[in-house]
Amino acid sequence: MQDQQAKPISRFLTIDEVRAVAGGASKSTIYAWCRNNGFPKSHRLGPRRVGWLNSEVDAWVRSKVAA
Question: What is the number of domains present in the chain?
C-alpha cells in the first residue's frame, strides 16, 4: 500500500469565530469585507446558517500578514 499524505480537513467557522480571527471586527465589517475587500465569502449551510471555511480565512490572514 502506498503512503498517502493526509489532507488537512477544513471546517466551517461561525461568524463569532471569524470575528475573533479578524481582530474583533464587527459583523457588519466582516460582511462589508466580503463584498468589497477580498475577504472569503460565506457558504450557506442551511436556511438560516452560514459559515466560512477556515482554510480560506487562514489564507486571507496570511496574505494580510505578508502585505
Answer: 1
Here the cell at position 11 is 471546517
Per-residue pLDDT of the chain (67 residues; tens, 9 = 90+): 455 565 666 899 999 999 999 999 999 999 999 999 789 999 999 999 999 999 999 999 999 899 8
CATH number of the domain that 17 lies in? 1.10.10
Q: Is residue 54 part of a domain?
A: yes
Which structural domain range is residue 31 located in? Answer: 12-66
Q: What is the C-alpha separation between 59 and 61, in angstroms, rounded? A: 5
Q: Report yes or no on 2 lying in a domain.
A: no
